[in-house]
Design a protein that fits this description.
Helices cover about 20% and strands about 20% of the residues. It has four helices and eight strands; from the N terminus they run βββββααββααβ. It is elongated and about 65 Å long.
Length: about 240
């Protein structure tokens, strides 16, 4: 199995928020084996590996819990006013949304030559911003676009890896009075993604996608120590 090491500034995000100005990231295959100071002995199996000076900063990649990835190719929509929830800004009451968002996305989604370029662009955009795991690949105008997401960013809906169960691309709004009720609805699911966070600041939005849980329970929604993914960024002066 291929072993290599990257040397430079290392942001660990451990309990002490340790930053190694001169550290080494040791990787075997798709797994991060160790993050050590450059003057520390190499871990077993890496004694003959010469670290590559990357001249940048390596930090754990961000896990994106909610996105509509192909729409990232469009300019940001200038929201004209405050909305209470996501059911208020679309439809006939707001024709500008179709003109500026859903209309252009439909044109791009239905073009077999443009859509692959859209996918590569939004994946690269995510990676440059430090996101290494994302979701939200479904597109109404092109259901087949899902198969195009096999690039540099991990897609939790199409993982293409037996050890990583795939998450559902859409989950309904959840109204649950406690964590037990919510978890019971997902006990037979292949993978249970965290509850969808609704769009908008209104009370209806807050009631969906959140629930009180017992004081001694934590519901895992991601782990920055997940093996095999790290984000590399250029850093001025390094």
């Amino acid at each position: 199995m291929h072993r290599y090491a990257l040397r430079g500034c290392r942001v660990t995000l451990d309990a002490s928020n340790t930053v190694l100005d001169d550290g080494v990231l040791y990787i075997c295959g798709q797994r991060i084996e160790a993050v050590l100071s450059a003057d520390a002995p190499a871990p077993p199996g890496f004694e003959t590996v010469v670290p590559v000076a990357c001249g940048g900063t390596v930090q754990p990649g961000l896990i994106e819990l909610h996105n509509h990835l192909p729409y990232d190719v469009l300019p940001l929509w200038a929201v004209p006013k405050k909305y209470g929830n996501r059911s208020q800004w679309g439809g006939s009451k707001n024709p500008a949304y179709k003109t500026l968002v859903t209309g252009p996305m439909r044109v791009l989604g239905e073009d077999p030559q443009l859509m692959p370029a859209v996918v590569r662009y939004v994946e690269a955009q995510a990676m440059v911003s430090g996101t290494t795991t994302t979701q939200g690949v479904a597109l109404f105008s092109n259901a087949g676009a899902r198969r195009m997401y096999r690039g540099i960013v991990r897609n939790v809906e199409e993982t293409d890896a037996p050890v990583l169960p795939e998450a559902a691309s859409k989950i309904a709004d959840v109204e649950a009075k406690d964590a037990e009720t919510f978890l019971a609805r997902h006990q037979h699911a292949q993978a249970a993604p965290p509850p969808r966070r609704g769009h908008g600041p209104g009370g209806r939005t807050r009631r969906h996608g959140s629930f009180p849980g017992p004081a001694d329970r934590t519901v895992p929604v991601g782990d920055h120590r997940e093996p095999g993914r790290h984000s590399l960024h250029r850093a001025e002066g390094r």
